[in-house]
Amino acid sequence: MTDAVELTEAEAEAQVIAKQNDQFRKTWGADFTIPGKIVVTQSVACLSAGAQVQIMRAVQAFDTFTEDNDPYGDHSFGAFEIECAGETVKLFWKIDLYDRAYKYGSEAPADTSETRRVLTILQRHEY
Facing residues of 123 across strands? Predict the structure, then answer.
């Protein structure tokens, strides 16, 4: 019976984190009640300005969460594609939860006063 209670608590925490992750991602980090950073890899940074806009819009609009790409229910990962210079570019985004100093994983991931998010955007071949 204890396991069922712990699972319920874990699911409830995952739902809180998912809501925070969605808010951070959809506002592109502009909601300062959910602190964090957005970073891109060098190969993403080298894409055109038009591609950068497509990427931002795709990450903000992402809502295709499934059991396969969101097994914990915390909305911390997504895969998507954009068109750039006539080619399909395959990308991932992921959100990692750190302590306030961005040094270690957060010990209280649902507590926005103790947790800092890092949203990373990378090309699939970099994962």
Answer: 91
Instruction: Name the residue range of residue 21's domain.
Output: 2-126
Tokens of 74: 């915390």
- 3-class state of residue 13 by DSSP: helix
Instruction: Identify any residues that bridge with 116 across adjacent strands, giving them in sequence order.
Output: 98
Cα–Cα dist 75/82, whole Å? 20
HSE (side-chain half, CA atoms, 13 Å) at 42? 0
Give me the phi and psi of 26, to 5 degrees please.
Answer: -70, -30
pLDDT tens string 5-27: 566 899 999 999 999 999 999 99
Total domain count, the chain: 1
Retrieve residue 123's tokens: 């090309």
* pTM listed for this prediction: 0.92
